[in-house]
Design a protein that fits this description.
heterodimer, A: alpha+beta, Aldehyde Oxidoreductase, domain 4, Aldehyde Oxidoreductase, domain 3, 7-stranded mixed beta sheet, 5-stranded mixed beta sheet, 20 helices, 32 strands, B: 5-stranded mixed beta sheet, 5 helices
Chain lengths: ~775, ~180
């Protein structure tokens, strides 16, 4: 028998997705599907050099090509005060260069033409003369006194951007001094790129009569972008409309404002015609913002009995030519200071230095933008390094040092207050599911036969859901989020939210929250987002913040409606409001369950029979400012086999136990975890971006930058524990990035574990067959 | 090759589409911008991702790596032609039931590849499915649910194959 909750499709049900019918029929509306009358096209001339002065740009041949309408250069933009734009990190970046380029594939000029192919032809005809300069590629060399200057526009005449630290240096030094064991490791987490299957693009359309600029844009944060656009251009905010259509994957790569958006907007304002700009994949990989690129040195202090005491971390962060990361303003290294992870340490001290190099902007996202992945990689690797040094099982060492369930809320040595957790339960569940003891026996047998098998654990703590606004802002805009709900007279509703889906299924899950709170069926609730003319203001979707912030706003707005509905119920039932209770998705008179009204009855009454003196209608808005972040966690165990003939690492099994608090839609959560695990495995084994000494990018297309296919991706085995967030209105924590954050060290730990018996203590990612084969050779393990 | 425009006629989802086009026009741009069928997507420029996969005379083809003139006279099937008479194709139904899509961008190419594959192999193993879709990249799902979706479709298609056969057998039995 179906329960009322199942009929409604409320919390905890695997409701099929409301967005799927259009996607399954090819009726999604992605950016390149938008076609406006009179639309023209833009394509971009890019720099072949990583660092060069521009001595001449000759557009005459391009302009002579029939169909080419204009060629826009930095000098044109400079005249309008738009050659530079602010980044989200209080730096500035070039929209188009006036006299020099600072990374390969940088935008140099834009060709506007009547047709897509003619714009591309025009790009070939723009003649640019460069005078190459020595590039800064290595971030360590960037800090040397004689290093070429990446950013002579700054007052500060070196390549150092900022220094940031957290924790207590003196306490940490003292803990290290008294520790019996110290392990130290250099960890490099290379540049990677999100590569959502849809690239970035926009259609900018300026209406000269209305003076209004409408921009359809692949953006995860439409409202913030409208505000920045208004501040930069002086166009009143009501005359700018940013619309995020269906987004073909974001993962953080669609948070920044890329030069193409701005140039297309300028072109539309100049021509009065809609201008479409769509990146090629190669442009997307080579020029759009990158993630990671952290050079980390970590030290972990402990006693011989395995009691972990303190952590010291120094990091050089390669930010490329512009500090265009998307971190909260006060956190140039994001939330990296969550690096003490799931363990109860006495002290920690973390230092990060940001550095400019001649590369595209780094420090953006790869399904985690706030440096939590780097933090988790550091601590989860170091725990294994310590276990290896002490000769103890890494599971036992984790169990010994976990923050215990009764210690929450837990104050970390770097100042975070973890809301809730039960780390031993998650690890025990993962170990039982994968059969940990049996695997260890199998490994010993195989090792005796010369076979290479490894088991790797990661027991990570995530930190998501920014705000709270007292601490978190982006360019001064506080990191709350919002929801507006209107219940129609016949009991259906429209819900508008300040966050922006890119595949997470918000049209379904946010409807489920309202269904649960109001007792209205999920199919009668429409969720809208992404249009700044209609949706309430919010900071957008990234950093797993939608459910913790806008999800909370949706619950609170629903509860405001329910409060008003209670008074209407009292009126309809001719009872005192104090005698009315919400039970089983309807209002009833206490002690008289037969006397009840549904939300549908109340909605009708709100417009046809509301009590005199009460405002008509049934709607509410909430801007939710979370009191704290949320701290999802998980325990992952990975089993690998290594081919001694090729160095290929095969993930045989991967068990992921996740705890994201209370779950809205189990089907969608599992899907998020599957995707996150794949984007965690990918940089561990396949993906990585490097540059040669001239600053040439070496993985600029899908031929060299290898996304996992179904062949490399294992069958993910998932399970869960549920530890609700005590401060979230329905106990949820967020899940989008957990698996991407937690998975990489599980894979590395497994591969190192397979080779630990010959003294391997660390391998940098990506652990490609070539890299692993070289290690096998060095240790006499290679075959063939 | 001449730059002069050429007339090509393709049959897309059973409908003839004819146009004067430049010889360099890619098939995917013909489908998206001449025939206005935007369900077929573009995800890369190196024939790697499969977002543009369509069926060319029943065989999967990456339409970003063919000129439309090369497809002159061909039968093209795209995602828009999968639903018949208001009934979803079993592959579409499978992706819906098994949560085989998230952002939906790779989905049309993935489904077209699956449709052709199941014609060839109606009773596949999971491993065979993974191999069949290895030219289609998905960044959201981690493929597990895509494999389940295609197995769901395979089962439905086998049922549909069996159902008329059983009906015939039943009719024979009553004679």
């Amino acid at each position: 028998m179906t329960t009322p909750a199942q009929t409604l499709g409320g919390m905890g049900h695997s409701v099929k997705r409301k967005e799927d019918p259009r996607f399954l029929r090819g009726k999604g509306r992605y950016i390149d599907d938008i076609k406006l009358p009179g639309m023209i096209y833009m394509d971009i001339v890019r720099s072949p050099y990583a660092h060069a002065n521009i001595t001449k740009i000759d557009a005459s041949k391009a302009l002579a090509l029939p169909g080419v309408l204009a060629v826009i250069t930095g000098k044109d933009l400079d005249a309008a005060g738009l050659a530079w734009m602010p980044t989200l990190m209080s730096d500035k970046q070039m929209v188009l260069p006036v006299d020099r380029v600072v990374y390969q594939a940088q935008e140099v000029a834009a060709v506007i033409a009547t047709e897509r192919y003619i714009a591309a032809d025009g790009v070939q005809l723009v003649e640019v003369e460069y005078d190459p300069l020595p590039p800064v590629v290595d971030p360590f060399k960037a800090l040397e006194p004689d290093a070429p200057l990446v950013r002579p526009d700054r007052e500060q005449k070196n390549n150092h951007i900022w220094h940031w630290e957290a924790g207590d240096a003196a306490q940490t030094d003292a803990a290290f001094a008294s520790a019996e064991v110290v392990v130290k490791e250099d960890l490099y987490i290379p540049r990677i790129h999100v590569c959502s299957i849809e690239t970035c693009g926009c259609v900018a359309s300026f209406d000269k009569v209305e003076g209004k600029l409408t921009i359809y844009m692949t953006t995860q944060a439409p409202h913030a972008i409208r505000t920045v656009y208004s501040l930069v251009t002086g166009i009143p905010e009501n005359k700018i409309r940013v619309i995020s259509p269906d987004i073909g994957g974001g993962f953080g790569g669609k948070v920044p404002v890329y030069p193409g958006y701005v140039i297309a907007s300028v072109a539309s304002i100049q021509t009065g015609l809609p201008v479409k700009w769509i990146e090629d994949r190669s442009e997307n990989i080579q020029a759009d913002s990158f993630a990671r690129d952290y050079h980390i040195t970590a030290e972990l202090a402990a006693d011989k009995d395995g009691t972990m005491k303190a952590l010291r971390v120094k990091t050089l962060a390669d930010h490329g030519a512009f500090d265009a990361a998307a971190n909260p303003s006060k956190f140039p290294a994001g939330l990296f200071s969550v690096v003490t992870g799931s363990y109860n340490l006495q002290a920690a001290h973390v230092e990060v230095d940001g550095v400019y190099t001649n590369k595209p902007s780094g420090g953006v996202a790869y399904r985690c933008s706030f440096r939590v992945t780097e933090a988790v990689h550091t601590i989860e690797r170091m725990v294994d390094v310590l276990a290896q040094k002490l000769g103890v099982d890494p599971a036992d060492l984790r169990m010994k040092n976990f923050i215990q369930p009764e210690s929450f809320p837990y104050k970390s040595p770097t100042g975070w207050e973890y809301d809730s957790g039960n780390y031993p339960a998650a690890l025990q569940k993962a170990m039982a599911k994968i059969g940990y003891a049996d695997l260890r026996r199998e490994q010993a047998e195989k090792r005796a036969r010369g076979e290479l098998m490894g088991i790797g654990i990661s027991t990570f703590t995530e930190i998501v859901g920014a705000g709270p606004s007292h601490t978190f802002d982006i360019l001064g805009i506080k990191m709350f989020d919002s929801c507006e709900i209107r219940v129609h007279p016949t009991g259906s509703a429209i819900v508008r939210i300040g966050v922006q889906t890119q595949g997470q299924g918000h049209e379904t899950t946010f409807a489920q929250i309202v269904a649960e709170e109001l007792g209205l069926p999920v199919e009668n609730i429409t969720v809208e987002h992404g249009d700044t003319d209609t949706a309430p203001y919010g900071l957008g979707t990234y950093a797993s913040r939608s459910t913790p912030t806008a999800g909370a706003a949706t619950a609170v707005a629903s509860r405001k409606i329910r409060e008003k509905a209670k008074n209407i119920a009292a009126h309809l039932l001719e009872a005192n409001p104090d005698d009315i209770e919400w039970s089983d998705y309807k209002f009833q008179v206490k002690g008289a369950p037969g006397r009840s009204v549904t939300m549908k009855d109340i909605a009708f009454a709100a417009y046809t029979n509301h009590p005199q003196g009460m405002e008509a209608g049934l709607e509410a808005v909430d801007y939710y400012d979370p009191p704290n972040l949320t701290f999802p966690f998980g325990a992952y165990i990975c089993v690998v086999d290594i081919d001694r003939g090729t160095g290929a690492v095969k993930i045989r099994r991967f068990v992921a136990v996740d705890d994201c608090g209370n779950i809205i839609n189990p089907m969608i959560v599992e899907g998020q975890i599957h995707g996150g695990l794949t984007m965690g495995m990918a940089p561990a084994l396949l993906e990585g971006i490097s540059y040669d000494e001239n600053g040439n990018m070496q993985q600029g297309t899908f031929m060299e930058y290898l996304l996992p296919t179904a062949m490399e991706t294992p069958v993910w085995e998932t399970d869960k524990t549920v530890t609700p967030s005590p401060h979230h209105p329905f106990g949820a924590k967020g899940v989008g990035e957990s698996a991407t954050v937690g998975a990489p060290p599980a894979v590395v730990n497994a591969v190192v574990d397979a080779l630990a018996h010959v003294g391997v203590t660390h391998i940098d990612i990506p652990m490609t067959p070539w890299k692993v084969y070289e290690l096998l050779e060095a240790h006499g393990l290679a075959e063939g | 090759m001449s730059d002069e425009k050429q007339r090509v006629t393709l049959t897309i989802n059973g409908q003839p589409v004819s146009a004067e086009i430049e010889p360099r026009l890619l098939l995917v741009h013909f489908i998206r911008e001449v025939a206005n069928l935007t369900g077929t997507h573009i995800g890369c420029d190196t024939t790697s991702c499969g977002a543009c996969a369509v069926l060319l005379n029943g065989v999967p083809a990456k339409s970003c790596t063919m000129f439309a003139v090369q497809a002159d006279g061909a039968n093209i099937s795209t995602v828009e032609g999968l639903e018949q008479g208001g009934v979803l194709h079993p592959v579409q139904e499978g992706f819906f039931q098994e949560h085989g899509l998230q952002c939906g961008f790779c989905t049309p190419g993935m489904m077209m590849t699956a449709v052709a594959f199941l014609e060839r192999n109606p009773n596949p193993t999971d491993g065979e499915i993974r191999q069949a879709i290895s030219g289609n990249l998905c960044r959201c799902t981690g493929y597990v649910n895509i494999v389940k979706s295609i197995q769901y479709a395979a089962a439905r298609m086998r049922e549909q194959q069996a159902a008329p056969a059983m009906a015939t057998a039943g009719a024979e039995a009553t004679q």
